[in-house]
Write a structure and sequence with these properties.
The structure is a homodimer. The first copy, chain A, is built from 15 helices and 13 strands. By secondary structure, chain A is α/β, with parallel strands linked by helices.
Chain lengths: 380, 380
């Protein structure tokens, strides 16, 4: 039996529940064709009932042909259109027994997915949002869109929809990542929104065409929203909101984890406030602050400056002179300095020092500990 | 010329602008009587024009007598009614060229100030508050009052008044710290509120009886609000709100610095959000979370348990069994653990671990760094 990589991956998507860690590990270990050869002949894998398919190549080709006929294309790891940020999922571990790089993505929409997802921020939150949350998510979407940042979300009611609509309203790009098949309209009421996303961005899913949205697929889907993004922003979330899973994936993937506060009298913001209290997310209040958080230490600059000139660009190249001065004045040890002390060192006004510190902290260059401001510890 | 300590301090209050660092330093160095002898004979001190008073003792006695006649008493450092927390101001430095332990406090109200201020939280914020802010401040005041915590604030319009009213409404104690004389009704519209504060708590000031409220006295006054308190909670504050000075004093005095978030669309919360973003305040959403922040590591327990039994009580004595288990599982080094890992170590559910971590962090026993949860570094 011979099967090529793309067809093997299509077979996996159509036959196996998405994001099973054991299957993802097998694919990573032996490659998709050999994994399919093993699995289609009944090889047992933890969590998976044996599967038998005498001709997986024919099955895979049929899936690809059917999907193509309904306007979906199949984008696989390593291909030019593949969003390479998703490869980070290979080493991010599991959550709710789901994890790993997807075998591929079913994509609807004209725009090139790799180009569309060059600068992406996830804006997620409660389905049962308030009008405050919808306003904030819409403003964030529009502000990010104005800045050329693509907004990824889950096309659910509430915050997701408000974020998509916000960025679409300013002509920006957006990606809707579904828990069901990319060809399934869910929720039903979002047929128009999904069509709008398709024409101005993309609707994607790792689940098989026609797949129904299930609870476990929502949890698996959330890792893709975080995986595609440089930052995850939660706008409203109650204590047990699924969007906190997306935030958790952001943490596992070392994405910037951000939360928008709301009235403490609002149930819809309790989960965000808890995440902020536990320092699992940084507080942001607008799109500019989200953008400030987009360039973590060691990462390539988000605006593509690094692609031009003398090869690798350091993150410090993007700092303004004041930020550089404050950065240079920061101590490296545990004993930090107050903004006032840094003001004395740099001879900059305290307000300017504070502003620079906020910006440096958002870039993970400065950290504020119990003993004051210091250089952020380098990540492993 | 002979003058006793109380009379000398009354003279200082009546003659010298409050909170001048050079005068406070002189008093700390030579004592109030010698300081008065020097100052009343024209001794020059930075920031102070020379003063001449041939009989400061007579002046001081007259001030005390007049104040007594209008229902004020003079409470001095070292006296039984003195709130000893204010002594921390001796080493807290200056802000806006104001600082130091006050010479004494003019007090209106029947209740003993030391008893009243045993457990105090400052609730401060914008004069131009929103109805959301007023509601939250009122709820905080009531929640703290219900728990037997006294609320200190500045009796200004807006958040201050809402906090006073909240605690008064549940029959709790409150202290209004004024920038003008304790006998001056300012703002005029708060005559009733100040009378209510007097009958259920205290109205206090370091400024001379009859003194007018000036900008510099407001700034000096804010250090007393923080100094009296174990925690400073800012409910609403715009970018340049004076309540951020109170928060800054809280920081200088190592008080718990707390902020209540609000809608990001509200101008009235911008200063609080900035303080939270800069980690100058911890996010709190209700009175219970404020109370959780009241017992910093090494401090005496706030509920007085430490007064009974085997002498000094450790802060860990007040933890519940789960919190103790999580505390014991926390690593001491820089490399921390996730809540999930701690859950595996302790065999407690992740949600219980998270809850315990929040509580431990509020007590400054646990800290969350870029590499996970660990034991909080001990304060110097």
């Amino acid at each position: 039996m011979s099967i090529d990589d793309r067809t093997a991956r299509a077979w996996l998507s159509a036959t196996i529940e998405p994001a099973m860690p054991a299957v993802a590990a097998l694919v990573a270990q032996v490659g998709a064709p050999d994994a399919v050869r093993a699995l289609s002949s009944g090889r047992s894998v933890p969590g998976l009932r044996p599967v038998y398919d005498a001709d997986p190549s024919a099955t895979g080709r049929a899936v690809l042909s059917d999907a193509g006929a309904t306007g979906m294309r199949w984008v696989c790891p390593g291909e030019p259109e593949w969003p390479t940020a998703l490869d980070d999922l290979a080493s991010a571990g599991d959550l709710h027994r789901r994890g790993g790089v997807p075998y591929g993505l079913w994509v609807r929409g004209e725009r090139d997915l790799a180009t569309l997802t060059k600068q992406v921020v996830a804006v997620v939150g409660a389905r049962a949002s308030t009008s405050y949350g919808d306003d904030v998510a819409g403003d964030l979407g529009a502000g990010l869109g104005d800045a050329g940042v693509c907004v990824v979300s889950g096309a659910a009611y509430g915050i997701d929809a408000a974020a998509h609509r916000g960025v679409l309203a300013v002509g920006g790009g957006t990606v809707a990542v579904l828990a069901c098949g990319a060809d399934v309209v869910y929720p039903r009421g979002h047929e128009g929104l999904l069509a709008w996303c398709t024409s101005n961005g993309a609707v994607v899913s790792e689940a098989a065409p026609g797949a129904a949205p299930t609870k476990i697929r929502f949890l698996a889907r959330n890792r893709l929203i975080a995986g595609l993004s440089r930052a995850v922003v939660v706008v409203e979330a109650s204590w047990r909101s699924g969007s906190l899973t997306t935030l958790k994936w952001g943490e596992l993937l070392s994405r910037a984890c951000l939360g928008v506060p709301g009235p403490v009298t609002s149930e819809a913001s309790t989960g965000v406030h808890l995440a902020l209290r536990e320092h699992r997310a940084e507080l942001v209040t607008n799109a500019a602050e989200v953008r400030d958080a987009l360039a973590p230490l060691g990462a390539a600059p988000v605006d593509g400056v690094g692609a031009v000139g003398l090869g690798r660009t350091r993150v410090t190249d993007r700092l303004d002179p004041r930020e550089l001065e404050v950065l240079e004045a920061l101590p490296a040890g545990a004993a930090g300095l107050t903004a006032e002390q840094l003001s004395a060192r740099t001879r900059l006004p305290v307000a300017a020092v504070r502003h620079s510190l906020t910006s440096l902290a958002a870039r993970s260059l400065a950290a504020c500990g119990p003993q004051g401001w210091r250089l952020a510890p380098r990540r492993a």
